[in-house]
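Standup notes, structure subgroup. Blocker cleared on the nicotinamide-adenine-dinucleotide input:
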Amino acid sequence: MSIERIGVVGAGQMGAGIAQVAATVGLTVRLADVDRATAEKGVAGIVKRLGREVEKGRLTAEERDAIAGRLLPADGLADFADVDLAIEAASESEGLKKRIFAEMDGICRPGALLATNTSSIPITRIAAVTSRPELVIGMHFMNPVPVMKLVEIIRGIATSDATYAAVKGLAERMGKTTVLARDMPGFIVNRVLMPMINEAVVALYEGIGSVEDIDVGMKLGTNQPMGPLTLADFIGLDTCLAIMEVLHTGTGDSKYRPCPLLRQYVDAGWLGRKSGRGFYDYSAKG
Ligand code: NAD
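Run returned:
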């Protein structure tokens, strides 16, 4: 199954990163969001980031222009009729993802693959709203996509071997290493990572340590590149909360209960780097 033309839904942190890396390795990418203006903003952001790579001498201006030429802002999903693979990277909401998959199923040509970048929602449940569950798969990129080497691949109960092989091959073409996870809440990475982040928020909530002390403690004490609260700000606190809720409801186990302080930050609109404030204040950093 050859994949040359892809569609990406969601031009946020993840969708833009996926589109950037895919266009860099030569794929043609249609990028869609809630409207064309948002998709265009997503493409402009990618081109700006590529410009910084040119300044650092990691990319030539000609290469940047060639990559930009392969990034096509879409007028919604209607532009996805000719793609070989659509990757959904819209917000972490099951209802939203199901609506997008039902729509993509109606628009994408028969035989086109449909992947989701969900952090935690069951692939089998998303696939069930389509007429092609054997062609639906989880393709979980890490943030920031151009930097992080892993793609966690999740097969739904009906995903075919050919779909898995095609998506694994594409991830490798994009320079990534893959791991295979069963379709259980949180898969591998977030099943292990999110309870640690949630527990760091509990430690803050209970006054066990300050934001800085929790982060420095975990960074230097357990040899992680950044502390868990810094990482939560990178991921987005809304995304962290949504994943904890999926773990909690999906397993029925109270050990996954989201920390009330995490919920309160999200209620306040303090979503991390993307909103300018989370556990840290980014408003002065632009
Ligand atoms: P984000 O908030 O940066 O971007 C989400 C984008 O989806 C926004 O641009 C929004 O306008 C768009 N969107 C919302 N409704 C839409 C619709 N109906 N049609 C088209 N676009 C729509 O979020 P993100 O961090 O990029 O996360 C996107 C997905 O990737 C989520 O499923 C998340 O769980 C997953 N993910 C996130 C991370 C992370 O570290 N942030 C890592 C791996 C996976």
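Discussed briefly. The pocket of nicotinamide-adenine-dinucleotide is lined by residues 9-15, 32-34, 38, 89-92, 96, 100, 117-119, 140-143, 235-236, 239, 274 (CB under 6 Å).
Next: hand off to the docking folks.
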